[in-house]
Amino acid sequence: MAELQEGKKPVYPLFGVRGRNGEDPVFSVRDGQVVEALNVDFFQSSLARKRGGAASVSITGGTAFTTGIARMGVFEPTSDPGAVELWATDFAGTPLTKRLAGGTSWANVTFVDAISARPQDICYQSFNQKMYAAFDSTVNRLHCYDPSDGSPSMRRVGFAKPAAPTTGVSGGAVTDSRKYRVAWTKQSGGITIKRSNLSDASAVVSPAAQTVTVTRPSLAAEDETHWELYAYTLTNNYSVGYLIATTASGTATATDNNAVLSGSSPPDENANTPFPSVKFLVADDSRLVGAGGYETSAGDSIATRSNMVVWSPPLGASNIGDDERVSNTTDIKGYDFVDQAIMGISQPIQGTFRVFSLRAQWKYVATGVAEAPYTRFRVTGGSGCVDHASIVVAEDQNGDPSLYWASPKGPVRESQGGQQRMDHDIRDIWRTVNKDATGRIAHAVYHEDKSQIWFYIATGSSNYPDKKLCFDTRYGHPANDIVGTRDGWTLHTGPSCSAYCSIMFSETIAASMSRTQKPYAGYTGSLALYRADTSATDDAGTAFQAYVETKPLAPWGLSSRGSEREEPTLIAVAGSGVTITLTVTPDEGLIAAHASTVSLTPEASETAVFRKFDDCKFSVVHCVRLRLADAAAVSHTPNLHALMAPFTVDGTQ
Questions:
Q1: Cα–Cα distance between 638 and 653 in angstroms, integer?
Q2: pLDDT per residue over 13-54, tens digit each?
Q3: Residue 351 and residue 365: Cα distance in Å, rounded?
Q4: pTM recorded for the entire structure
């Protein structure tokens, strides 16, 4: 800035702060930025507002959790938003999962197959009024919870392939050579809603004026209600099948006394392959999409690979278990492969979803063609992702749909303006991220009501997130001088920021859950579930400190010196019992810092107060830093509007 004449008395206004910048040399920090903004945000504030606190949420009901909450999910069992459920899984030796539905008491969820390892990696996805879960079970099947089941549990999707049936003959009308195949089905109201792949064929049976009795194999003991019998004849070399019987599962035999075969055609070979045991799971409009995998043996499904992307047919394709199956027929393959191990997959945004490795990414674009529903493009120069749990869909500063994730170099955003790095102002923090964390490197939520992305990150030697980076999407904007997005960042610490996992859920937990949402976090310090950004002034009883600190200020010009001979004035929201400290540090510590406090307690009924800091003056210095702060970790929530600091130019050095 232009230097001022000696004797002038410029007033330095500290307001309109847009974020922290801990990376640039302190004298290069931009106007509108501060070198640190700790435990504050800019929601309805022009300078800084202390972040909301956190309240502990009851986790009683059902079997007691004994360890921390490893992962959470939200289930939408109906179209009623008040009926949503919060699901939580702990770290127990045999991990326990419970659901919070229609009130404040939790209930156990029974798993047909236990989580065998890393419960923190379970990936929940609500889809088609079922709760799907991708986890390591040592069984190559995805799992789901369907409230329409008689006694719902977290069961395997689809059906196991039946073994081949056996046959016997007695007197009747059939003279032919035939083979038989069977399929398990589930019916509801007389309508088939799910079907297995066909069994292998029975041995050839050659009746001569006889009836063939076909005995089904042992039941899958899943949720089959019936079994279908298909017959094949030597006349067409056993290549064409006919549905000749549908029998209740409790009846073990069906008969073929058809001199001439007729009936519906069997399903295409492998059309009803159960969705495999993927690692990552999202919903793309009417399809379930998964990626990666836990099992290398196919079992009843498709052998998964770390570089595999797999999808279900769209709902309505056959109305027979479309969401629980994968097409693996000659004509339609419901899977694809990229050339690197997959680290995450995004929810859809503007007709596409992204698949990430650690260093690269691919865009899958919907085509509308049943045989090839997606076209895949590798994104040139696209950033990879360190953790599936860090990927969120939100908005940018213009309100346009945007995708955010944590890459090895820091947070990245994809919006209408293209892909933008967001790390410049927080590189000092990102360099401390533990990219070798064995538990979770990062996870994120989009706090829509405040236009904030919360990135929880593991730093130092921590194996789970112990800090939180808060990004205000309204302030982040592309910069002209540096490629990427600048501004909008603050740093949060405290118990509510040390979290195994996070999710957005209803603020009010009741018989009908509220539509207003808050972030929830599984605390790493003890067995606790926190609802964050509440009206609480601390983190479930633990106070935390907040402050903003400016860069070194020299409004008189760096070749001059200045003084502060009049008291700075703070403008803030009135707050009873709230005390704010202004610390002044001249010449980067060459001269001892000194502090002054003011009270924000109103004198009458005013909503804003104007307070002068006494004894906060300095004389003839090159520069000065200002810190507005809690004096210590205290329980209150101040909102600061502006600091007006009058300076005097004392002349050149």
A1: 39
A2: 889 999 999 999 999 999 999 999 999 999 999 999 999 999
A3: 6
A4: 0.94
